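Quick board copy: two proteins, each given as sequence then tokens.
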Amino acid sequence: MRTSYPILASGVKPKMHFSPSALVFLSLPFGQALMFAQWSPLITAAWYFPLLAPLLVLVKPQTALPIALNRLTWRGILLALAVLAISLAVYPEWPLRWVQMIGEYQQVIPAMMLPLGPFLLLAVLFPRDPRARLLLFMSVLPLRAEYDLVPLFLVPSSKRQMVVLVALSLWNPAQFLFAAAGYPWSQGINSYHFYALCMLLYSNRATVRSTWENVRRAAGRSGGFGLAGDKAMKAAYRFLENPRPARQTLRFDRD
């Protein structure tokens, strides 16, 4: 697993130039992945090296699928099929063994964890945004612990967002609040997804405003949401009409 870290580093820092994506190495999920020798850093690297994505689905499908579904290439698919054929020839029983191990897998599905989980499905509003698709797939597929969340740090689209997400991973207020309220500690894992969702909504605020306007028009034709609901909608709409000026966003993935 040691080779996964230089591969990820070469992806986030092309030509030895600093990229905000490199801040992922300071995040708590990356530190846990390093401590427990997990696959998630190499799976994250597949975002920059698509050839690896289908192959890693054979290793850890629940974590690699969100990357692979965004980075499918014919060469990657053929490589994965070749490795699959060789592995079956060497050890034909491994799929049965893998199925038996699924029953022992302790998992959580972020989108099904209240109270934040259902909000994660809002990522479906941006089907053309690969980072939105990544967040959506990571929300509906099972994960085990925070070390599986390294690919989530591909969602931020600016240096400021990346700094905020890394800082929240080091001190996660939502997770402490859930624990204080009596929720199990794992309940706060989807707070990472919720933070990423907020960044995604801000980055796509033009689409959010358009969708909100369509909802308002539809509500007007049907009689509105009531006095309190209408006031809340107007306040949110004014905020979306006059957001704080955002700095120029940075592209993290390689051309």
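And the next:
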Amino acid sequence: MTQRAKRVVIELISFPVQAVQVMRFICTCARGTEPAVVAELASLGVDSEVISRGAVSFEAELEQAYRVLRRSRTAGRLLLELGRYQVTSDDEVYEAAGTVAWEEHLDVGGSFVVDAVARGQGWNQRFVALRVKDAIADRFRERVGARPDVDREAPDLRVHVHLRDHQLDLAIDIGGGPLHRRGYRQIGSEAPLRENLAASLLWLAEWPRRAAEGQPLFDPMMGSGTLLIEGASIALGLPPENRVRRPPMAGWVIKEIRGKG
């Protein structure tokens, strides 16, 4: 681990008290595994509720959200909710996105990307993402005089858009992308089980309790070994490896909330 990575991990653990601020977060997950996410969050000291299929919501201070980001094995993504809007057209999507103070979340010299999921009412998913991107760029031009670049590979800020029928939800993906990628799988296999789904199945099977009691874990149809690797990690209390080495989006959140503190 590099010195910079060590410093970031330390900052994640020892977040300044004056920066305390309660915000609303959403954990996405595989449909049907919401109870597993709720149970895991409870083990991390976070009260949560299922808000829809594949989504669990909780209100917490940033330090608690970082604990979830660093320790959760069941979450698919961790989103910071920015706003919810009712829209009926692409222009209204643009107007809604333009009301968010994006300049408070990203330096003009940074980069961003917009991930969009749009269903119902004939929405075009790519065009919705484009309209939100335009709204962010135009707001920067109006407020700062310049705009940040778009970077699809390694953005400083990943914006998440969810639009279903007329309900538009805007959020920041503070995990920087899908959280199922642990970093231990070097070679792919046919139809591998996603790591967060494997962890969720183990939580639904009450594996954390069984492991604490010293019970064994068998997987007669081992495949690529995902269930056993996740099971061993849960039993040993290990956080997902890639988030220890490189905490996603840590620099953005620490910089921004400290600025407000």
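Board note added afterward: The chain has two domains: 3-180+240-260, 195-236.
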